[in-house]
């Protein structure tokens, strides 16, 4: 059964400022056409079809090995711990030693693990497999795509992905580890692994499963004593918080979570002319393929006269040009093999279906190579022409390069080249909004990619760009919805002559050469492009400025691509000409010197409290009579306190005073309304003018640490930023005399430097 309800997708077409909201059938990725009052023309459906079409072994700033596995909640996993971090082997050993079966406190056998919005409509009993069937097994005669049967949960999108997963043994055992069974070392505990935003996460569960009248409620295998699929579904539900969280979704999402791949979506009335070539290349690279038919709003999963099920997710299990011989001609015909995840008699009944007369024209050796069978198993062949005629949506999950084994590569399988970067949009710093907001657009993160080699069969380079926002599903209970996201690509004709990052002037006078078809509030926006070899800049953004979120940017190409952040190198640069010249005379300077001597006493030194008195007196206007915080005064002392006495002498104070006057002059350049505040967007320019070169990562950290909730920086916090930057850069340079960009500290030295600075 499917969950017959709806969800809404907000789309903003490029160059417009008004979003349109469209309605989808939940439980299936295909588009649902609402009544005529909200959907007046077929043209609007075609628009959305175009908008929805559309990329760690490569480069990037994810610093752990591609196949590193984190435990759920472990530091680095991307998830906050819900309780104690659960290690499968440790927990199993403890259960075996105590003679008890594992009970998971983090995902208990209670209604809350089933639903978060309502109570179940019947009594659900949680049972272990030995209470459900005799001789329970993880696998009965191995695993296959025919093992997966849908239950009462509306997650056929998940079933289609699970069926595809069984097609590749290497991928399957990456998700379902082989170190567990109901025979050896059984302790009621199992674990599964899922890809989440660039990391593999290990999820531990107990084997208590929801049943009604003694039978499994949800996903199950055709064999009553086989339990790998039901346990896999439970682990996936735990990852997302409940079984209810699995209602509604696209096969794309599950395929990516099972493989770490990048998924493309195509509407069949808007497919590119080379679609079969795309499918062939995808199959060559072990891509996972899924498709579906637009649902009938009046009938749930209605069957068409051709034997196909509307509103249902199918798997594509083979793509091939097949030899055909007729009395009059010899040639090749493009065929696809598909599977209905129900694995039952619901099959295509048209040309090339089971036992259809067309198979008479296929040579016996070709039939043998195809492994042709005509069983009542939900699997069937059809021509590519009929496929594009009867199906309405196609999904391709392109696998990351690490998913292919050496044996597969030796057997002729190919792999993508991939680059991946993590980033974030921070209010007032890197959340610049789309190109409609030119003044802030250039503040978005920027990524430079170099394409050197065209495809084998073309003079251009195939590039798949995938922008995924992170953790929005997990935050849904707190009211967070997906942001409306997209990206633009710019050609850099003379990259060495351009600033890093590209500034507002570049975007004023240069149009994008490619972009996502729309800004849309889905987890991921993906699009395939054909670009000439060259250097390009990709700018990912939200539609509106100041929308905060984390993202993952992935690039797939047929040949090697070189990708880097298009950003400043951290370090010291030139001070702004407007500041470098002699600062304006300070009428208070003599008074400040006298005040210092008065407070310093006989030893001519001041501590942080005395320094605060001096600076509060001298900077009354800039601090709006609020004075400096004790933290910034302590940091100022530490910046120049060579002997760690906690005090400054007069010469050290003079040096500090010159720095403060320079930083104050910079602040005035950008605080045009004399409010005593800088916007975070202005912080980068202000610190650049003060002689500090920072990238987006450092700026994001500074604003997280020192910015207000509204993304503003006070004069006091701006001075703190400047003090900390100068101190840390000088500490580093002292240990890097040869400018190798590397410094070495002992643990004691590092703690001393960071604590006191």
In a few lines, what is going on in this structure?
This protein is of the alpha+beta class. It has 22 helices and 30 strands.
Question: Could you walk me through the main structural features you see in this protein, from its secondary elements to its overall organization?
Answer:
The protein has 757 residues and is α+β, with helices and mostly antiparallel strands. It contains 22 helices and 30 strands. The strands form nine sheets. It has a six-stranded antiparallel β-sheet. A five-stranded antiparallel β-sheet has the order 19-18-22-16-24, with no helix packed on it. The protein has a four-stranded antiparallel β-sheet with strand order 15-23-17-21, with no helix packed on it. A hairpin with a 4-residue loop joins strand 11 and strand 12. The radius of gyration is 31 Å and the shape is elongated. The termini are far apart.
Instruction: Look at the structure and give the mean pLDDT.
Output: 82
* Shape label: elongated
- Largest β sheet strand count, sense and barrel closure: 6 strands, antiparallel
Oligomer: single chain
The total count of strands amounts to 30
* Distance, first to last CA: 62 Å
Instruction: Name the beta content range.
Output: 15-25%
Tell me the radius of gyration.
31 Å
Helix content: 25-40%
Count up the helices.
22
Q: Report the uncertain regions.
A: 1-7, 23-60
Secondary-structure-based class equals: alpha+beta
Main sheet strand line-up: 9-14-10-11-12-13
